[in-house]
Specification:
Length: about 350
Amino acid sequence: MLKKLFIADCPMLECIAQDFLETTDLESIDIHGAEKIKSLPRGFDKLSHLQEIKLSRCPNLISFEESGLPTTNLRVFAIENCENYGVLPKCINNFTSLRELKVSYCSADISFPEDGFPANLTSLAISNAPKIYTSLVQWGFNRLTSLQELNISGEGCSNVVSFPEEGIGMMLPPSLTSIVIKSFENLELMCSKGLQHLTSLQRLCICYCPKLASLPEKDVLLSLENLYISDWPSLEEGCSRGKGREWSKIAHIPLVQIDMKTALKAKLAKNSGELQLICFSLCHLVKRLEQVSLQLSFNVAFQLSALGTMKLVADKRPNDTTVEVYVPLGDEALNGGHPKRAIPA
């Protein structure tokens, strides 16, 4: 009994047989690299068990308007790199089970659905969709009362100079635990007032925002466990450890990653001794490592998977041990693949 349909790298495929949609137990559809597909067959709305739809690299796919979508159990809807896809389902607000929505690098003219997004979304990712972003600000991020992860890439949003935007779009849902902001070419301000109520925020990533002058105030960063900053030249010096003008705002954060350099602080107790500081620094992209396992003399094991070479330096002193590991994380840091998650709780 077919439950998952996965189609990958079929450049000559032009259509999907209607018979597949008669498999009512189908739970997942994943289509990747079907360059000639223009539309999907009718009858998606009859797949009552369908939970996941993922589409990528289907440049001629236009919309779901004719095929319809199930509204009952759909939890994940992701569409990426489908350059001509320009219309989200009008009834998407009725997808009460939808938790993850991703619209990335589709038509720049793709617009915000008239009735908005489902309030129960827990993860929202938008890239190269200026019309959706503008309408979402006006509609109100705070309506997404269950949102935990927000990933916004601002290609085409040249008029955006602050985040959150002042006024109607200022309030973000207090449920947020992770925010990724990138590619806002004219962003100048991270509005502290719009972030101050995010007491559950654990992860903040800011990338490719060249005009951003400073970090938010320290008070809105107190709950952070991970701060990632990349391609932000004006702040590289400002966040220098111990002496940068911004360092006092971020010194308390356990994991700070600045332009491919990571400082990870952790305190672990072992018998009468204490591991006081572990620093991971990133440099020298050379080759791929599948997985590196470090078993240190104090019996603390770390698992790292990344690109590059590793250099281990142990400096033993009477009361502390400092270990430096040189291993790059690259884009994995943006997707949650940072070393901290590999440390046993």
